[in-house]
Amino acid sequence: MNTNNGQKTTKRSSLFRANPVMNRVTKINERAEDGHAATYGGIAMKTGFLLLMTVVGIVGYLVAQLSVFQYQDQIEGLNYKGFAFAISIPQAITILAASVIAIVAQLLAAFVPKTIPVTGTLYSLCQGVIISGVIFTILGGQHMEYLGLLALAVTVVVVLTMAILYATGVIKVTKKFRAVLLTLLISMLGLSLVILVCSFIPGVNGFVSSIMNNFWISIIMTLISIVIATMFLISEFAAVQDMVEGQVPAKYEWYAAFGLSFALLWLYVKILDLIIQIAGKNNK
Description:
Layout: H1 2-13, H2 20-26, H3 40-67, E1 74-80, E2 83-88, H4 89-111, H5 116-138, H6 146-167, H7 175-198, H8 205-212, H9 215-245, H10 253-283
Antiparallel strand pairs: 1-2
Helix pairs in contact: 2-9, 3-5, 3-10, 4-5, 5-10, 6-9, 6-10, 7-9, 9-10
């Protein structure tokens, strides 16, 4: 049985995986003994913990906004995709710091996966702060915080639908599936890099800015990002299945939990961004 599992893992490890952490798992030859293998329940509990940390980050920022930030001088006249808002210097610093820490934690989790219990927790907390800043500071300026709940509802529907389609075999994570995901992901990253570089070139930055500020182009790019995030999530489902069926030791459950929570948060953020763009267009 162990031999078959090993052969299965070796075969799948050659295929592209969107999550570098889970890619490392497929290359692990270690197998659990005495029933200490990764389980769906164990992965679900750890994923739930990381998502709970996101909620803690959301609540923590909200509490700070209601108790500390509101007494600070506000910078007025700001606008984000059609939403006018005000923000204090401490708020801006908090969101910026959370963004930087989230990037660092994500990189550490990818390259030093043994740190995931800590870096994954930090990443989730910081993502919660960023999300809370968008919902309660930007959307809150127009009293449209409910859009955050709308995005959550849409995300839940998408996740459940994809989970059912994957579980019933309607969607299968094949080599072709991963190739398409890789192509889309690299294309979006490449396009983002080109846009970033062009934004610093005099004479070109204005043209690029006008294109990126076009409502329909922005919507299309966000929709493509949602498709990528959804495919990323499905790829994580397959990776988790490989872990459990391959009898990988339970200590690697954190890897899967981080991959799933990362995909879920990414999907939620992109759906929220889409809703903000649509609502902001009508808000102008």
